[in-house]
Design a protein that fits this description.
6 helices, alpha+beta, three-stranded antiparallel beta sheet, 197 residues, globular, 9 strands
């Protein structure tokens, strides 16, 4: 299928008469790499904008911290802008994710080249300018519901970090405190709290 989403008002929802196979979905995403595409459990596709410059700046700061930590720690892999096939039937894209080596090694080479059929242990999302906070929080809850142990939502506008964990209420922090991954994201929080010029 060759369907390009150019000059289309976003966000939008697409529903095909026959839901796309995993291979067709992967090709569709590759052919439309200038937008953010996810599949809902019912097969419907949601298409949105990529992150803006401010969100991208925060993502790079977090990625650097996460990469350094993962390299020293040695227990897992850092992935960026990767799609995951989740237990609820959805395909979700993670701006940043960490997957343990044990689970990464269990994937076939083909699975590593496409959307990995697993939920990462933790994910990071940075809220973009046009994004809705409630929608972003619901996104983090869906990751947790599908098996993520830990999810972080960075909001550059409010300069806050919200931590999501299984069986716990989300915790909003104006300043990153000690806890899982605290040292990984301290540098990103400095970017957030430094303001925007």
């Amino acid at each position: 299928m060759d369907l390009r989403l150019v000059e289309t008002d976003l966000p939008l929802r697409l529903r095909f008469e026959t839901p796309l196979s995993e291979e067709a979905l992967f090709r569709f995403c590759e052919g439309n790499d200038s937008v953010w595409i996810e599949r809902e459990p019912n097969g419907e596709l949601s298409v949105g904008l990529l992150a803006g410059a401010r969100a991208s700046r925060v993502l790079v700061a977090i990625l650097c911290q996460l990469w350094d930590w993962a390299e020293k720690d040695g227990r897992g892999q850092v992935l960026s802008n990767a799609g995951f096939l989740l237990p609820d039937g959805s395909m979700r894209g993670a701006q940043l994710a960490w997957v343990s080596n044990e689970r990464w090694q269990a994937l076939t080479e083909e699975q590593r080249h496409g959307f990995a059929p697993l939920c990462p242990e933790f994910v990071v999302h940075v809220l973009g300018f046009a994004a809705e906070l409630a929608e972003a929080r619901a996104r983090m809850e869906r990751w947790i519901a599908n098996g993520a142990q830990f999810a972080l939502l960075f909001d550059p506008g409010l300069q806050q970090v919200t931590t999501f964990r299984s069986a716990m209420q989300p915790e909003i922090q104006d300043e990153w405190k000690s806890g899982p991954g605290g040292e990984v994201f301290r540098g990103a929080h400095r970017v957030l709290s430094g303001g925007w010029r």
